[in-house]
Amino acid sequence: MHRAMVFQSLFLLPLLFSLTTATATAKRLRTIPRLSPIGPRVWLDHPDQILGESVREDLETFFYNQTLDHFNYRPESYDTFLQRYLINSKYWGGANARAPILVYLGAEAPIDEDLDAVGFLVDTAVEFSSLLVYLEHRYYGKSIPFGSREEALKNASTLGYFNSAQAIADYAAIIIHIKKTLQAKDSPVIVIGGSYGGMLASWFRLKYPHIALGALASSAPVLYFDDITPQYGYYALVSKDFRGASETCYQTIRKSWEEIDEVASKPDGLSILSKKFKTCNPLTDASELKNHLDSTYASAAQYNKPPTYPVNKVCGGIDGGGFGDDLLGRVFGGLVAYKGNRSCYVNEPTNQSETSVGWRWQTCSEMVIPIGYGNDSMFPPDPFDLKAYIEDCKSLYNVTPRFHWVTTYYGGHNIRLILQRFASNIIFSNGLRDPYSSGGVLENISDTVVAVKTVNGSHCLDILFAKETDPEWLVAQRKTEIKIIKEWINKYYADLSRF
Amino acid sequence: MHRAMVFQSLFLLPLLFSLTTATATAKRLRTIPRLSPIGPRVWLDHPDQILGESVREDLETFFYNQTLDHFNYRPESYDTFLQRYLINSKYWGGANARAPILVYLGAEAPIDEDLDAVGFLVDTAVEFSSLLVYLEHRYYGKSIPFGSREEALKNASTLGYFNSAQAIADYAAIIIHIKKTLQAKDSPVIVIGGSYGGMLASWFRLKYPHIALGALASSAPVLYFDDITPQYGYYALVSKDFRGASETCYQTIRKSWEEIDEVASKPDGLSILSKKFKTCNPLTDASELKNHLDSTYASAAQYNKPPTYPVNKVCGGIDGGGFGDDLLGRVFGGLVAYKGNRSCYVNEPTNQSETSVGWRWQTCSEMVIPIGYGNDSMFPPDPFDLKAYIEDCKSLYNVTPRFHWVTTYYGGHNIRLILQRFASNIIFSNGLRDPYSSGGVLENISDTVVAVKTVNGSHCLDILFAKETDPEWLVAQRKTEIKIIKEWINKYYADLSRF
């Protein structure tokens, strides 16, 4: 199995090779599991469109004239681009009441996508009398520098400005602008984000405490950098999730990789596999199938949401055996259970998403999350290969990933020792079934830098729209978070009255 | 008086007009009082050279391959330059003992200059068993990117990388490198700086708490940005210092400006003034004289050190009246008392210093310290003119100062409200006679973010070499600082043993 292609299906589309001429090498690039709060559409089991529309009615769209490079003073760094943000003022108690401002920090996707799924702001708006602000991350959606997406993504010279430090500086500038415009100097700001956006939220509170009073960082794997977290954490958890759902399912998957290789090695092996898995296009290499399965399992585990619980679905299909009692028939049954009845599976023709294009750059510049496959997983062992990773990125963009930069700029090593006497007002929330929780903050650091976790939760559940079917533990998680944020705000009001 | 040229003599040399073609406009540039820990050589009344040599014997020089742009991933941003740092390991207790590392953060000068004056590290080395590290600021001394000073200072395209955020990122990278090299992972780092370097120290602790356990920020006017501190603070304090030394001296100076203008307006006025003040070159404008006097008074107040106390010296000369009892004769007497017997005064031929060249760029990019002259001063009122300031900078460098950036990135507004529940381990030390103390943190913010001040102190006294003649209040100030830093370190050791 070529691990390099792992997870491309998480992006629901192949890597955009047109961005580079080094197609052959590009194929080897090991991508990092998607970090968005929302999983593949197939798993979005609440009626997005309807929810989205009613939420969008209350939103006004603005564009801020954003500085291209906050940390440089070359004439080009003064260039600006229009950065999109949206405001819902329907529930706001107003500047005079010093009513709070809840700011959602957009991540590696157009902000629109998250509006349909991230409900924490709207769901709590009445309770907080809050102004709701949604900020779009630079280089995504409509917030593109250099005039066009084509130009912005052309090469490292234009992509160079695309990184997290610039992104949170953008957010600082916009939030100051909004507060000034609304004359809401004393309104406390709470920043909220999920996954990569959750990292941004916690980092924003650390770097800009004078702008945000607190942060809710949902499923933010801030510790999955350098050597802080064991590289095998992610897939160990995927495997644990499957084993927890069904031991036979887990064993079936574990044995399947060898079986696929064995069949593939036969004279007509690839065509047998193509038929068996009803592939949309004939397989040219067994790795295509294995990578697809790999990312299917990872995705199911990461977005293992109630009420349907994808891991249970996949395992139901595998254990059910409706497509033959043999190993591969069972595995195919898992795919069908996951995706429903389709004319074909694997190798689907797909379009490139902004997330896959943008996130690939981000992972090749600074967001190096070393994820490998260890012995305690249902996948063949395959340690993270930094050297190969760097070479792939170099051939793609002609720049070397700055492997240590995230821990240099944001920290992470000995986080408890460092932050217990520094910083305050950060919630790190996690669902422990989320494979990314292996790189999350799972223990309280201090009275106000706290971990809120759920045993059965998956990726970013707490910041999604509340639903009738939400289990009690999820309802309780959100209640805890709201209570904590209220305490921050009340303490702030008390402080404010004393100064 | 053309306020634009104020303080050029603080840099001991005229502005480097060769940097720009806009000479006429350049002349109008209002420079900002020098921020270095050390004043003009004339006031250095301890035997620098001797001290310097003995201190330097213990120093080893290193060069670190530093990244040009930490916040950008364009291919050019990966360029590197050799950054100088010096280490004194004579007193270090070693990595096994987790003995502390005291790091002096270089500011707007070659690091050599500070070695001769900044003694806090060496003076406390035995007490702390500390490793001593001195880091040179990018674009100064031997830490020049782009191969040569000429190239580095050529224009905004090469100067653009010259700013505080990049500088403290440099420091982060070097400190991590040093700790790694020495296998001193657990040795606590205390950063120390004076004036602009003091701002860097406090900002470093705020942005990189995972790298520095604490900061001693001496005479750091972190609040002299935007509208946090009244713009008249600096000159109000200069005036207060003079009034405190001698009411008649203060009144003489206060009345002298009009007198100078009156004489200058006579047919032969400038030549009368030139003769009166024994100028080295004939005055071409009264502003030359007035700016020189202005900066002399400011410098005397800022570096009003024991045991000689320059303000007393100047006022002794003015009140003594050895050069005539008339107003201007008295003022000249002040000059002579300040500078000693010379063949000529004012308009001295001088060389351009690195500080004046570098700091001018820094004040024209981000370090916009709005200093104006109010009614409660001995100078003619002259409010800070941001518009003219921006225009001057634009004509010099073709870029606009980012007036609000310092407060956006580092904060400063409502500092007590913000930092009382965030951050820890920062000492803001000030001497209240230092005009820059008007922009300093003068009250405790929390138990561990504290103000240590002396009523009679001037600029950066506490971090200079201790001397026999030091008054008790200065000795006490240093003792307090050492005690506080020891508490940080002991608490850190206790924490470390628990994790």
Automatic annotation (TrEMBL), chains A, B:
Domain of life the protein comes from: Eukaryota
Pfam families hit by this protein: Peptidase_S28
InterPro entries per UniProt: AB_hydrolase_fold, Peptidase_S28, Ser_carbopepase_S28_SKS
Molecular-function GO term, any one: dipeptidyl-peptidase activity
UniProt signal peptide: 1-26
GO BP annotation list: proteolysis
Keyword hit for Endoplasmic reticulum: no
Keywords for the protein's UniProt record, in alphabetical order: Glycoprotein, Hydrolase, Protease, Signal
PANTHER family in the record: LYSOSOMAL PRO-X CARBOXYPEPTIDASE-LIKE ISOFORM X1, PROTEASE S28 PRO-X CARBOXYPEPTIDASE-RELATED
Family to which this protein belongs: Belongs to the peptidase S28 family.
Protein name: Lysosomal Pro-X carboxypeptidase-like
Species assigned in the record: Populus alba
